[in-house]
């Protein structure tokens, strides 16, 4: 067993797409998806960009405002997740700061209450 301290992962700042206060620490990859820890500083922005694959953002600490292709802004907090579809333009902003995990790629994400892996009983 290994314990990963996500804040201690080597992070690199990202400024693409007009992003600011945004850093990424990669810690997992497969042939079909990658897994990263992200930090948004207070007032930080992940600028509008298309999802390369289905993208899942899981808020671990803090809160953010997110928008997808339709432009509707929604607030998400720790314990909530957002799913964007492949190619969907999306943006994330935070007033107070946020730490999250992103999984992006060939993902099968179930609806609430839907069991994705029938082997999990």
Automatic annotation (TrEMBL):
<dbReference type="Pfam" id="PF07883">
    <property type="entry name" value="Cupin_2"/>
</dbReference>
<protein>
    <submittedName>
        <fullName>Cupin domain-containing protein</fullName>
    </submittedName>
</protein>
<dbReference type="InterPro" id="IPR011051">
    <property type="entry name" value="RmlC_Cupin_sf"/>
</dbReference>
<feature type="domain" description="Cupin type-2">
    <location>
        <begin position="38"/>
        <end position="102"/>
    </location>
</feature>
<dbReference type="InterPro" id="IPR014710">
    <property type="entry name" value="RmlC-like_jellyroll"/>
</dbReference>
<dbReference type="InterPro" id="IPR013096">
    <property type="entry name" value="Cupin_2"/>
</dbReference>
